[in-house]
Amino acid sequence: MPNARLAYLADRQVHLLFDDGETEILSSAFVEDVRRREASIDRKTSWKTQGTGARFMGAAALWDDAQGKREPAFFVALSRGRRPGELLYAVTTGVVSGIFAYDVATKGETRLVHGTDGVALSMATSDDHRVVAMTRSQKNGSCNVAVMRDDGGEVALVTDGDTVDGAPSWVPVGPEVTAGRHQLVYQSSGVGRDETGMLAGLGPSEIHLLDAEHAKLRTLVAHPDFDYLSPRMMQDGTLFAIRRPYHRGPAAPNAGEMLRDGLVAPLRLMYAGFRYLDYFTMRYTGKPMSTLGNTRGRQVDARRLHERQNLASAGEVGQPDELPRAPREWALVRRTPHGDETVVAESVAGYDFERNGALLLTDGAAITRVAPDGQCAKLADAPRVTTLVSLV
Q: Mind giving me the DSSP string for 85-124?
């Protein structure tokens, strides 16, 4: 029987990839139990929206259908387990959330945490100790780092403030970390709010190093023009992270540009109206309203546009859409302890390391393995991958 070599999170489901290239969707007992309960409730209340019951309920049935539909359970986080051959994942129903351990060989599921205190959006384990790090959402929209023992129990916050923290990763014992100490790296973005307290935007994502035992926090990487995400630190202090351009959002309105736009708006409206009538005339008479410029070229373009509109309305246009991929600017970078930064790969949406040092990469559409000697091999086509976890 082939062994599972990696797991990945895509479309809110956990998938297992085996040595022979086959994939399998992980089946969670908790998720299946929630779905069975939901199906049972739907059957008991279906009279409200079907047959004479729907006519009797009238408008009330419409309101119940719009507001009373419960969200099914789905996976939101995935990480390596506490021992080889094990996975940890977080599941939420929108109200109740939990963290579970899954044995890949036996397909057994163990519940570690279950409640309504907040969903774990990312998790990390360590070979050096029995503490699980995670980020948990807060009611005010922020997200902070928390820790718990790997057998479950109480969850304790180790960061606070109005920030969105994510992707914690334990630092292995090495030159940067002495034996017995608990340090982790994570990404963090400051939260901007408007005068009503609503979320208005996020600042650039930075990389922080947290020494939880000694209550020390140090910023490792920060840049006003880039987000640094998904950090991993090696034993020698080398840091890996995904770097992508930081989008500041719409710029503040400029008074001069607003005045100029107001003055030329009537001309733009008149031109748009003329072009519409020009196209309308060519469509039904074959002759343009204007004789200036390349009228033959415009006639051909209009005809092709009309044909494409007809094909689109019939659902026959073009080839199947290409799978979305991470932009080229999303790069996996390596930073030395001295701050020297080099690009390892481009178009990276997620990554992980095998225990032998091989690198697993995804651009959101496929999974690639880069061996320690640099040889690349495509492992699978996997659309919309957000998280990779090596099992070997």
A: TEEEEEEE-SS-EEEEEEETTTTEEEEEEEESS--EEEEE
What are 189's two structure tokens?
A: 């973005």
Name the residue type at position 146.
A
Which tens digits make up the pLDDT trace of 119-176?
A: 899 999 998 889 999 999 887 778 999 999 998 888 999 998 889 999 999 998 876 6
Report helix, strand or coil for 312: helix
Contact 79, 100 (CB under 8 A): no
**pLDDT < 50 regions, the chain:** 56-57, 59-68, 297-300, 302, 311-320
Contact, 199 vs 193, CB < 8 A? yes
Half-sphere exposure of 239 (CA within 13 A, CB side): 27
* Residues forming a β-bridge with 10: 13, 385
Q: Look at the block and give the residue holding tokens 């360590």.
A: 126
**157 burial type by CB count under 10 A (0-12 exposed, 13-18 middle, 19+ buried):** exposed
